[in-house]
Structure formats: structure tokens, C-alpha cells
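seq:
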Amino acid sequence: MEIWLNPACSKCRTAVSELDATGADYTVRRYLDEPPTAAELEDVLARLGVDPWHIARTGDAKGLGVTLPPRDEAHRGDWLALMVHNPRLIQRPIITAGDGTTVVGRDAESLAKVIAAG
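struct:
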């Protein structure tokens, strides 16, 4: 299992606590220090079944001084590039289980799903 997290994020700390409480074996990726590539983001998006704008922290764009592209297929690559270069825009935590189950672990239900998948 792998968890992309920002240690300053309370939702990330909660997810780590839940993983620890269940004895889950996981690795941590501090995605702000080691941003995902566009290919890694595409892989996560495919497993989640969503488009890039669905996992974007759009409220953080202004503070980062970036303009968000339109939410359409024609601008998908623009979204990916923006998120690679500004990883703070990526929703967190993203957790992937060994079987490929992937969630944005911001709620108990999502955490339970990925923990059950192991």
C-alpha cells in the first residue's frame, strides 16, 4: 500500500493513524517533495475513474498564483502539467492498496475501502 501525503494535513495524519491502527503495511510518499509525474497521475486517475479536475484543490490555485484551465478533455494535459508543477493542487491523501484499489482518503468510508483491499 502507498499513501501520498502532506504531513501538515490533518486528513493525512488521520489516514496514517487509521492505517497504523489496523496494522497495514504501507509506504509514504511526500508528494510535495517528490511530485508525481504526469504518467503517475494518469495511472491514479484511471484507478479512481475521474478526471484531473476532480482531484484538484481548486481553492488553492489563487494562492499559488495559477489560473485553472477549463474542465474539459481538450485541456486534460494542461491540468496534468499544472498539477505536476504545483503538487499542492493535488487532493490528499491518495492511498493505493496492493490490489490497485485507490481512494482519496478524506473520509472513514474511503479509508475502510482501501484498508479492506489491503
